[in-house]
Amino acid sequence: MEEALLRAVLFGTPILLASLGALLAERSGVVHLGVEGVMALSALAAFALALETSPLLGLLAGMGVGVLGGVALGVFAVTLRANQFVAGLSLAALGLGASGLLGKRYEGLPLANPLPEGGLALLALGLALLLHLLLYRTRFGLYLRSVGENPKAADLFGVNVEGVRYGALALGGGLIGLAGAYLSLAYRPSWTDGMTGGLGWVAIALVILAAWEPLRAVFGAYLFGLLFFLQFRLQGSVPIPSEAFATMPYLLVILVLALSGRTRAPKALGVPFERGR
Amino acid sequence: MRRVLTLLLALGLGFAQGDKLKACFIYVGPVGDAGWTYAHDLGRKKAEAALPWLETRYVESVPEAQALPVIDRFVREGCQVIFATSFGYGEAVLEAAKKYPNVIFAHATGVKRAPNVATYMADFYQVYYLNGLAAGALSKTGKVGYVAAFPIPEVKRHINAFALGVRAVNPKAQVLVRWINAWYDPAKAREATEALLAQGADVFAFTEDTPTVIQTAARKGAYSFGHYTPMLKFAPDHVVSGQIVHWEVIYIDFLKKVKEGVYTPKNLQNVDYFWLLQHGAVEMGADYGVPINPKHVPLLQKAKLAVGGKEVAVYDRIMTLLKDMQSPKPTFDPFTGPIRDRKGVVRIPAGKKASLEELLTMEWAAPGVVGDWPGEPK
Amino acid sequence: MRLELDPAPSLGKVALAYAAFLLLALFLLALLFLAYGVSPWRAFAVFLSPLTDPLGLSEVARRAIPLLLIGAGLAFAFRVGFFNIGAEGQLLLGAVGGAYAALFLPPGPWTLFLMFLLGGLLGALWGGVAAWLKVRFGASEILTTLMQNYLAYYLVVYLVAGPWKGQLVFGFLYTDRFPPWAHLPRLGDTLVHWPTLLLGVGAALALQVLLFRTPLGFALRVLGENPAAARYLGLPVGRLLLWVGGVSGALAGLAGVGEVAGIHHRLLEPAQISLGYGFTAILAAWLARGRPLWVLLTAFLLGLVLAGGDALKLAFSMPFRVVDVVSGLFLLALIGAEALSRHRVIWRR
Questions:
Q1: How far, in Å, CA of A160 to CA of A134, rounded?
Q2: Where is this protein localized, as stated in its record (chain C) (predicted)?
């Protein structure tokens, strides 16, 4: 049982970090569907730098790439007001592709001094709390939420809508980058093409399960980690096909959506802001 | 427009012709860092280095639906020999073989042949048995973990050979199996290993395309055996040995015979490589030329097992059998009867060796194997 | 500097925006190829090479078939404001339905018809569930359909690893081969299963006519433009949405039947069936700007991107990820250009 809880936390951590990143972007009104690709690229950058310098610099590099990914999405989604969903999907493909092309020479190398998973898990937990405080206890958080709910009103009150959205994307990107770095510097620790294995999409789903609340994302991520672990822990000892365990998080999201779908999402989610429209 | 494009194409491609033999490889996954496709690619590179008249090409991550179009292109670009390295390409290969009767095809893990389609496989079951002996000796809890990819006969055969080895040293030991239903999935490999660790397993073997199981086991101080390629560097203190493949041995032999005219697109109907230790197609080792990590040799020398009523050190037994099975005419085979499955049904009668057919269709589970076993015969 | 909506962009400006962004993408790609030691000219030539011969063209067509069917349905759905991104799962459900009809119903000349019928129905059901959740509970279809993709994926894994696993597959994850009645005819010795292609063309035409030439189509477009107005006009919004979800799901389901009946002749691992068509088709639909007929063009364009990418990785033994990079860059360029051409740049605040 203890073991299961530990796995829930340690495997839940990358999902938590990535979904906190996606959540921040979404609270400002921008859907970040590029998470999977940005995470892949961050994992590579983190690993490459960790190998050649130090794991801590690697961690920073991973976050840096995540920030860049967020800003890149911002150029399309915020400045150009392009379709956020398509921009995000393209970014996901581009990130996965670029990491695969650039990363060839880092495959098959062990990392001598990985980062401790436990420490990073605590950091992630702390960040979730911090994010909650940021959203509800700071002026920036107020701006951010208002931009996500009603950008027109925010604009009238003098909030720089585009600036806030860029800020949310950059900050969220940093978290997504941290998730990628966790995978290649602590969880594995090494790098192979495709190592994100769809966790980025799970993270996006989790944002909904968490109803856009950072603290709820913690539970959602850990629950996902727990179910993922249990499919192996219980394999052979319960007469349930392992596929049933694997589907549970997604069924849960649908259930949550059905129960609470109408109200929770930020009102301006996915809508580009046009002044005077 | 079309003219311009053709011109561009002609300018751009300008394929090197000459009397080089062109062999082309279709890979099922990305080349990656350690697994199945990586090993094939290593074999391709080594063959190219060894045979000056050989030119190779490859294309990675080809889904099954795309095998036929890929073969079309390869043939058009002048490939004379095409290696298809996944079971799932079988039907596409047979279809293409009819379409291109002058091209030679070789299908890894395949079961159906044709006049211009050979099949080949480098199999690990002997090595798994030897590694099982070591695992049985090293496990303190009597629980050995196996993280398995898919419940197919190849993997079942390997687990069984491994379990027979484990039980030969420790008749009460268990081999706990977890299926992850993936050839490449580090996260599943990691969590399956964690699950087995939580259940007390302290030695690990696996079938998955990354060193994840080894890295995970080493965190908890558990021993492990590498797979496909040398994995010692991922846990120098905990990797005991492993299964290493040398596809180049098969590739070089096959291509030489094509070059010499021994193999033609007309006479491959019965050409099936099922190459083992004695052919040098596989190796037991933590690294190339390191059958057992020297750090663990003393422990294996201390551990004993009974062979024909005599006490023998496990290390010596492994080395004797390894030497025997590497010799041109091995006398020992892990699947020699009497062998019952875990339900008590006799699967190989006393004094008999499992036939190739029996090896290739193995569905039963050896005694000591614990866990789900999809497709287990009643 | 900032951007402002440009209600009536001139044709020249639009052309300029597209030219600029595509050139930028080509430039970035050229850099990438150079870094990889491949001459950009050769790379571009190879990328376009599928257009120069029947073999390549058939590959483009084969890839375009599922994109056309799904894309037409999605362009339709997007126009009505139903953002179905679950085509991947609906395609898989279609494949499941088709496989059931092929494997477990008595074979005969009716088999293919039953496969398409059952596959289409299951696809419609899967799309309809999302529509129902939206109508009944207000759950965002973007998210429910995304989740349903996973459910469909694991359903197929469960079937091919469990109850439907074949007897003659050496323990691998496949069903047995479909009987010959369940095989779609193909064009010559290519893999182009032309009946599915015809279905796709028909679907694109029919939806275009429905959307722009009928009263129902008008109602649907009103719903897409302005849901509040639709309600005010007394349109049966719920019924319309259910209908739209069902239609787009059914078309994806048909595409799934086409893949298993035309190419694989069995049910197999889900990733091998869908090959990401459900997601690529979203892009085909988006590029078509909500006009089902335009998907005839965009599906083949994306088919070319996929086939050209394959040609690239094969010709230069490049990592398969090159396909992702090429398509990602082109798409970003296209949406960037589209967005820019709708706006004008204001240089002062």
A1: 18
A2: Cell membrane
